Amino acid sequence: MSSRESDQLIERLFWLVRLRWIAVIGVVLTVLFADRVIGLKLPVFPLVGITFILALYNLIFYLVASRIERNLGGVQRRVERIANIQISLDLMILTALIHFSGGIENPFIFYFIFHMIIGSILLSRRASFLQATFAVFLFVGMVGLEYWGVIPHYPLLGFIPATLYNSWFYVAGVSSVFVTTLYISVYMASSISNKLREREKSLEEANRLLEEKDRIKSEYVLRVSHDIKEHIAAIQICVDPVVEGITGPLNAKQKDLLERADRRASKLLFFVNALLEITRIKLTRQLKMESFSLLEVLEAIKEDIKSKARNKNQTFKMEVDPSVDRIRGVRVYIEEALLNLLHNSIKYTPEGGAISLKVEDRRNTLRIEIKDSGIGISTEDLPHIFDEFYRAKKACQLEKMGSGLGTSIAKKIVEMHGGGIWVESEEGKGTTFFIEIKK
Ligand code: ADP
Fold it and tell me: Which of 284, 286, 243, 285 minimizes the C-alpha distance to 266?
């Protein structure tokens, strides 16, 4: 079972627990309302006592679910077993509550249907029908024992004639409608829930196939771009000595053409390297997380960015909360994501502009803000900024060198670390990229 399925099952257990808290509050309020406001003479003590038992085992199931969540393993069976126990206990509690508040004369008997629906969602079809049979056994047992006087009948005085429980017609009529309602509701709810489960499974399968196809495509891209890279590198190795005049003098025309070829080869190499990088990241299934000092990374980045900014007469300011230090992640990747965004800031900010990097400590997360006073991004381009190969027109005019992969690489890296990345920008004013990652 995949970890997503286990998470879903556990989420359902927590859902059951949450529903039961609502039931506890509901029963207490209903008993108080019936007793204080309507003035029904209810045996309040047993009713509150039973509700207390309900609350108590709900607390226990909450703790059990939390423990399962902590150590997943053989989850499905355990969750089913626990859900079965919980629903059986709920049915017993409901029967006891109804017994002490009018038995078959209590209109709340139809609340058994809720348990049938919940059971059909959580359990297999067979188990849901078994739970329905258990509910029928409890209900018919309670009604029968009250009818034959084996257990006392607690009437809802002031609400309904107190002799109904003793009328054969009434008892048989209500019981048969009740029993058929239970089975029909289980049949309907489990049919719907089975269909939904099947659909969910086929969607998951389709998703898995798509992921597999994507992986094959990425492997192909990796191989091809690797080959291209080798060839370009070989071309450059051949061209460089010729351009530098090592192989003999060149006339101006020859030199110009060769230099242009060399520049093109450099651009292509830059692009292929970015393509290789993003494909490698895509193919990484799981990151080998380690604890490292973000502060050290920031210090190392600072020097590089400062000198690049200085070349364009830009200012670079770095502001880091004093509590920021170690985080868990892959150091080289985090460094790469930050560098990509900072290099963009320098690239897309004209001479004399300002670049800043701010790191804010927000208890469990870090908020990193990379801001520039550059050309900004238009509202049409903004939604596509993280798309692979996307470059805004204005950006292309300002800077020829670019692959359109830097922001996608940063996004992939941040998401692999379980974080989020987004951008705010105003054309002509500047751009701010935000990254939020867990520590
Ligand atoms: P590129 O190689 O073109 O820089 P990126 O993936 O790094 O590719 O960025 C994609 C596009 O997002 C850029 O072409 C540019 O249009 C826009 N962009 C990214 N960062 C900035 C920024 N700081 N200011 C303005 N535009 C930006």
Answer: 243
